[in-house]
Amino acid sequence: SRVWLPAPDDGSPRDPRWFEATTSAAARADSVLVHCHMGVARGPSVAFAILLSRGWDEIDALEAVMFGRPIASVGYAADALRWWAGPSLDESRVAALEARRHELLEDCRLRARLALWQLRGVSERQGICLEARLLEAIMGLLAARDGSFAASCWL
Fold first, then answer.
1. Considering just the CA atoms, what is the radius of gyration of the chain in Å?
2. Helix (H) or strand (E) holding 152
3. pLDDT digits over 57-100, tens only?
4. Which of 54, 61, 65, 137 has its CA 20 to 30 A from that of 71?
């Protein structure tokens, strides 16, 4: 079955009902495909919430999503944790989660810079146009079946 739950990607706090709706839909399935427009904030945040609802530790869930989708910011992870843990949540857990999220974001940026530097060196040695190769790779990653652009997070 398919569930469509639109949500703006404006950085504002997510309503707990959004996480409740997405995780309850996921609970009825063995496998789930979560996606949003770019696969950076909303989709990965829902994937994080689903893992929480399936009993994962918050740091392990965050790392699983961010390692599985290296460009993910999981920007609404704190909102998801607050939803999952409820009003008794110790805010030190949110602070620890956000600290780890920022560490992973920085690690991702460093790995991306290193990969680009390595690709630039290979392209210069082989006389390949870097921009054309990058554009082709990005288009290949983003092209969905219907020709529109999408990014997906698989669980």
1. 17
2. strand 151-154
3. 999 999 999 988 888 899 999 999 999 999 999 999 999 999 99
4. 54
Nearby residues of 146 by Cβ (< 8 Å), 6 or more positions away: none
DSSP H or E run through 80: helix 77-85
Phi, psi for 145 (deg, rounded to 5): -55, -40
% of the chain at pLDDT higher than 70: 72
At 34 the three-state DSSP class reads strand
Q: Are 13 and 137 in contact (CB under 8 A)?
A: no
CA 112 vs CA 85, 101, 132: distances in Å? 33, 16, 18
Q: Would you state the torsion angle of the CA atoms of residues 67, 69, 75, 77, taken in this order, to the nearest 10 degrees? A: -50
Q: How far is residue 70's CA from residue 109's CA, in Å, rounded to a whole number? A: 9
The secondary structure element, H or E, covering residue 16 is: helix 16-27
Token pair of 26 as six digits: 């996921």
* Residue 155 near residue 47 (C-beta atoms within 8 A): yes
138 has a pLDDT exceeding 70: no
Instruction: Give 32's pLDDT tier (boundaries 50, 70, 90).
Output: confident
